[in-house]
Specification:
Layout: E1 8-12, H1 17-28, E2 32-37, H2 40-52, E3 56-61, H3 67-80, E4 86-89, H4 104-131, E5 135-140, H5 153-173, E6 178-185, H6 191-200, H7 204-208, H8 219-230, E7 241-244
Parallel strand pairs: 1-2, 1-4, 2-3, 4-5, 5-6, 6-7
Helix pairs in contact: 1-2, 1-8, 3-4, 4-5
Amino acid sequence: MGRVDNKIALVTGGGAGIGQAIARLLGAEGAKVVVTDIDEQKSRDTISQIEQVGGKAQFYQHDVASPEDWQRALNETQTVWGIPNILVNNAGILFYKEMAKTTVDDWHKMMNVNALGVYLGMKYCAPLMAQQDGGSIVNISSTAGLLGVPRQTLYGASKGAVRTMTKDAAMEFAPQQVRINSVHPSIVDTQMADYGAKERGKSKEELGKMYPLGRIGKPSDVAYATLFLASDESSFITGSELVIDGGYSAR
């Protein structure tokens, strides 16, 4: 028995990193998984990994900042499998830049993917979930949405928006049994971590020493937390924020 048997899950940014780990785990635990991403080649690898563990999956190319792409992806999902029971808004981008050197274009680029993409996912998916017996939306935010980080003003703004939107939407859709929660990872061992380590002039092992648990996160750490929030095991949890940071923010 899988923890999300017979559920339909849509995972954005599922081609690599945290999104790939989430999609693979949901598939292994019984969900039919729709993987969306702008990168088809990487997403095909995710599909293959899901199928290797006995899961079912399909891919849609998807710009999360496009309302049309959201409507198309959801329409095609309904045609093939039905209304998603689970939505994981994972797609995101990161760059470091001193605030004085940022541009308005930088702002729009960051907010379009990290905040607008989450808003559109909730806007189009939550009402569909409300038409059936509810569902679970998990928005991947960041500890940067909770704590200050130098050269991440735009990233922090986008992830802070995700945190607050999650709570607002959770209150709005609670009567329809649509649960909406956010997950806040710190540095996780992905290509983003490679980039972050380079920007900070440290190795990932050195960055891991910042955390009380003595290491940076693994994609599976975030995937298992997301699986819990996506499953019926968390049926009395909505509007919450689950921090996955090795104890860093507890200092």
